[in-house]
Specification:
single chain, about 400 residues, mainly alpha, Growth Hormone, Chain: A, 2 domains, about 80% helix
Length: about 400
């Protein structure tokens, strides 16, 4: 097993590093299970007699602990070896998914047992997300960060195109329990790969509460960071409300139902894959401004569906939205890694993630309330307008144009 370390001044391509290849492979293997898990989870709930209420409860129980423990995960990511946190987090997720697979396969699953496993899985995510955000910059030189971030996302985006289809086939042929079992196994394999990274830990000089206070102070002092997080929370809430919640309903009424919605989802996934490819050669100087602008393309499919445009137009809009979102993610991640000190990356990532995670229930709640007053198409257009407005307001922040590429390449 090698100890990952950067060699100052090198221009080696990321994939020539065995440690980076190990990290990418771990993410790819884990993604194959995670892409199947939502389909399997839904049918596991249905299989034990649950309906929309039971599934909503399970999803909520999975989300709440992630939000609750994210800040603790951020503190630990700045105090401990991030590779060790990822190892433990992936093993914890493997235990949770393995237990869920066991109760489903043995026919003893209930809403309570499924929710309990989801709770444990949510806790694991709270620790792996902040730790994962600070790994790439420990493996590659600053000049290779954008390419490395794109390479990390490229295989996982490819899996997103085929994963749900494969998950549906596995669930249909073998049952949801076996798809969940595969998800658990992928976490184990990923944990073993990540164990080989053995990244050094940052030396901690204060307690947990002191680390949280100093982390918040640093987060708040960077105007570009908290304004992007705030705008991102609004954008994510509007996107989830419009696309994920109301999108399938509009597809059922305006187009051909599940088949057309599957095409829209596929176009969006292909866009994500194309966006990662774009980031391999396009290296914009104004990283944060590009992230803000390209993320705003999410308004396109909402507008297309809200205006009841033909399905081909919706597919083109979803494709462009996917491209824009992945370019935004890579540009944002690169800017974040370049402009936040390594010793603060975990806590800063945690504060940013809390905002995005809170957008999930917020978006669904607001969409449910608005649907009672307006038509679904009207709500979609409002969501599109909210995304555009949040983008324009964020572009009014002067610091957005100061967070730029600091190295060539």
């Amino acid at each position: 097993m090698e100890t990952a370390a950067r060699v100052p001044g090198t221009r080696t391509a990321p994939l020539r590093s065995a440690a980076f290849r190990r990290f990418v492979l771990a993410g790819l293997i884990s993604a194959t299970g995670s892409a199947m898990a939502p389909v399997a989870l839904a049918y596991a709930v249905i299989g034990q007699g649950g309906g929309a209420g039971s599934l909503g409860l399970v999803l909520a129980v999975n989300t709440v602990p992630t939000i609750a423990f994210l800040l603790v995960g951020g503190v630990l990511a700045d105090r401990m070896s991030r590779s060790r946190i990822l190892l433990v987090g992936n093993l914890g997720a493997a235990v949770a998914q393995g237990a869920l697979a066991a109760v489903v396969l043995t026919g003893t699953a209930s809403t309570g047992s499924i929710a309990a496993c989801g709770f444990l899985s949510g806790v694991a995510v709270a620790f792996t997300v902040p730790a994962g955000q600070g790994v790439v910059n420990q493996l590659v030189e600053p000049g290779q960060l954008q390419r490395a971030n794109a390479l990390v996302r490229l295989p996982t985006n490819a899996v997103r195109v085929l994963g749900p289809v494969a998950g549906g086939l596995v669930v249909a042929l073998c049952g949801p329990g076996w798809a969940l079992a595969w998800d658990a196994l992928t976490f184990v394999i990923a944990a073993l790969l990540l164990h080989g990274l053995r990244l050094d830990a940052t030396v901690a000089v204060d307690g947990v509460l002191g680390a949280l206070r100093s982390g918040w102070s640093e987060f708040r002092s960077r105007t570009w960071l908290w304004t992007y997080t705030l705008a991102g929370t609004v954008v994510v809430a509007a996107w989830l409300a419009g696309f994920q919640l109301l999108g399938p309903l509009l597809a059922a009424r305006q187009y051909s139902g599940a088949g057309s919605w599957g095409l829209v989802q596929g176009a969006f996934a292909l866009g994500l894959l194309a966006g990662a490819l774009v980031c391999l050669w396009w290296k914009p100087y104004r990283l944060l401004a590009v992230a803000v602008c390209t993320a705003s393309l999410l308004f396109l499919p909402l507008t297309a569906m809200g205006l009841a445009l033909p399905l081909p137009a919706v597919l083109c809009a979803a494709l462009l939205a996917g491209v824009g979102l992945d370019v935004a993610i890579v540009a944002w991640t690169t800017a974040f890694q370049l402009h936040v000190p390594e010793a603060e990356l975990g806590r800063a990532a945690a504060f940013n993630s809390v905002g995005e995670r809170c957008a999930i229930p917020l978006g669904y709640l607001l969409a449910a309330l608005a649907a009672g007053a307006w038509s679904d198409r009207g709500v979609l257009l409002v969501c599109a307008g909210v995304i555009v407005a949040a983008t324009l307001l964020n572009l009014c922040v002067r610091d957005v144009y100061r967070v730029n590429r600091t190295t060539p390449g």
